[in-house]
Structure formats: C-alpha cells, structure tokens
From TrEMBL:
Annotated InterPro entries: ICL/PEPM, Isocitrate_lyase_ph_CS, Pyrv/PenolPyrv_kinase-like_dom, Pyrv_kinase-like_dom_sf
SUPFAM superfamilies linked to this entry: Phosphoenolpyruvate/pyruvate domain (SSF51621)
Species of the source: Microbacterium invictum
Protein name from the UniProt record: Isocitrate lyase/phosphoenolpyruvate mutase family protein
Keyword vocabulary terms for this entry: Lyase
Molecular function (Gene Ontology), one example: lyase activity
Signal peptide annotation: none
Lipoprotein among keywords: no
Length: 295
C-alpha cells in the first residue's frame, strides 16, 4: 500500500480533524470524489447493490460482488478506499479469507458489521444482530487477518435499533478492545445519541449521514465537536444522480429532445476529462513515437 492510499497517513496528517469521505458504488463516483478533494472514497454496499445491480440492500449480493466492485474502483483512483464488506460473508474463517482478499485488491480499510444474514441497510426496519460474543470474535478475526499493518478495520454495530443504545455502546467498546481501528454505531436517531456514543466509546468513531435515514444531517463541524473522527456521506451522490436521471428521462420521453437539459449536463469533452482520456492518449502517443529496437 502506497502513502497515497494509506488511510492511517491521512488520519495522521489531519491532526485530529475528521476525515471526510463521500461514497458510492461505481468507479465514476470514485473519480468524482477524488477530483472534488475528499479524503477517501467509501465503497458502499447499498450503492453497489443499487448502482451496479439495480437491487435493494437486503443481502442479495455476496463477497464476489464486493470484490468486483472494489477492483473496478481501485483501478482508477489513488485516494484511500474504505470497503463496506457487510457481515464479512460468514463466520471467522470467511472473515479471515475475505479481509485478506479485499486488502490484496486495494482496500485501505475494511468494514464488517454484526447483523444476521441476510443483512439490511442500516437505516431499514427489521434488522437483527448476532450474539455479542460472536460479533466480537469476527472483529478479532478481521484484525488478525490483515497482512498489511496499514490496513484499518472498521467494526460496525447495528444493535441500537433492535437491542437499544446500551447494547450498541457495549458492543462498540468490545470491538475497540479487540483491536478495531474505528468503531461505528449505525443509525443513532438523535444528536444526543451521537453525543452519548462519543462520550462512552471514544477513539476513532464513524458518523454516517444518509439523508432521509434515521440519523439527523449534522454538519461536519458539529460532528467534529462531538468527537467523530470519520464522517461519511455514503450514498448521497447516488440518490442525487438517480433523481436527476429519472427527471431527465421523463422529460426526454415527453418532449423528444434533450435541448432543455443541455446546460445541466457534461458535454462529451467534460465526461472525457473526468475519466482522464488525455492521460491514456498521452501514453499512446508517447509509445507511438518511441523507436522499436531491431532484433
């Protein structure tokens, strides 16, 4: 893992300020996130399901889908990639194998959660979680499994909704005790809950902002004051894009022309710039001008 892709180095450089990440499920979102200057890209399981497969986040995808999505993103960006690995796709043996595979593909951090399978988006109703001891064993296995000490392990608990905030905090504390680098209590429904989690868990904490979900949209500076070290917007770009595409396609079907939208879309040159066409053409031109030695 290079210095550019090391999440630990980014945290160190921020000197206590929160690391700010945007997320999605595709390489194009990752490129735009990098070009916007975010600290990291969060590869969201929800976004992978929706963007790449047109499916809801209810446990319909598996490890191979996550690995394929990560490989596609890692191919095109240099900023650290935080990979949502759902439940780790099994117990400690599967967690061990899958952490090593995702690490080898290019994940700077790997997140696992304590839901029962099939899991659900953390802001949906009806979630269930595995026993605390089983969850802690899986986190400990993930920590032990990594081969690169720079790889960070994020341990998430979804226990707040089904079992209450006391249990969620107890799990977060236990995850930290077995070596998780960051802990993540998902879907706290109020700023008071966010504050209590910070006060009682400490360490590097994750705040997940999903507009329309259970957690209020608290500004970055307020989350920093509350003690959150990693703040992410994992699916906001996806939801903006989905709404905009739906509106465009409805108007295109109704009017038969895209003229009214011309100033609201990239031209071909603009999209080519995002995907760095000139970088590839430069390689082609450089080698075309290089004499080939004779045998």
């Amino acid at each position: 893992m290079t210095a550019d892709t090391t999440l630990r180095a980014r945290f160190a450089a921020l000197q206590g300020a929160p690391l700010f990440a945007a997320g999605g499920g595709t390489p194009l979102e990752a490129l735009l996130t990098e070009q916007a200057g975010f600290d990291a890209f969060y590869l969201s399981g929800y976004a992978v399901a929706a963007w790449r497969h047109g499916l809801p986040d209810i446990g319909l995808l598996g490890m191979s889908d996550t690995a394929q999505a990560l490989r596609a993103v890692a191919r095109v960006v240099d900023i650290p990639i935080v990979c949502d690995a759902d439940t780790g796709y099994g117990d400690v043996i599967a967690v061990t194998a899958n952490v090593r595979e995702l690490e080898a593909i290019g994940a700077a951090a790997i997140q696992i959660e304590d839901q029962e399978w099939p899991k659900k988006c953390g802001h949906m109703e009806g979630k269930t979680v595995i026993a605390r001891d089983d969850a802690v064993r899986k986190v400990a296995a993930a920590v032990e499994a990594r081969r690169d000490p720079e790889t960070m392990i994020i341990a998430r608990t979804d226990a707040l909704a089904p079992l209450g905030i006391d249990e969620a905090i107890a799990r977060a504390q236990a995850f930290a005790a077995v070596g998780a680098d960051l802990v993540f209590v998902d879907a706290p429904p109020s700023k008071d809950d966010l504050r209590r989690i910070s006060e009682e868990v400490g360490g590097l904490l994750v705040a997940n902002i999903s507009e329309g979900g259970l957690t209020p949209t608290v500004p970055l500076e307020d989350l920093a004051e509350l003690g959150y070290g990693f703040v992410m917007y994992p699916t906001s770009a996806l939801r903006v894009a989905a709404r905009t595409m739906g509106e465009f396609l409805a108007e295109l079907k109704a009017s038969g022309t895209s003229v009214a939208w011309r100033e609201r879309m990239h031209g071909l040159d603009g999209l080519n710039e995002i995907v760095r066409l000139d970088d590839y053409l430069e390689v082609d031109a450089r080698f075309a001008a290089t004499p080939v030695p004779s045998a």
